[in-house]
Amino acid sequence: MEEKAIITKDMIINDVIKKHPKTITVFNNFKVDSCCGGGVSIEKTAATGGVDIDALLKALNKVALAGGK
Fold first, then answer.
1. The pLDDT of residue 35
2. Which member of 1, 16, 38, 56 has the lowest number of beta carbons within 10 Å of its beta carbon?
3. For residue 68, what are the contacts with CB-CB under 8 A and spacing of at least 6?
């Protein structure tokens, strides 16, 4: 069974956290700025911090698909 990605790189960090609150832990683990950088896309903030976007998205979607509310 293929898992469907519900969080994409162009989504705004604050929007993702509002919809899936448990993703805040993932952002923190990856050292992604979800406070000051929360108003921009995941891709832009991750790139600024040198974060592996593919690994971040995989972790975010794992939490969200597991019922990350």
1. 80
2. 1
3. 20, 21, 22, 23
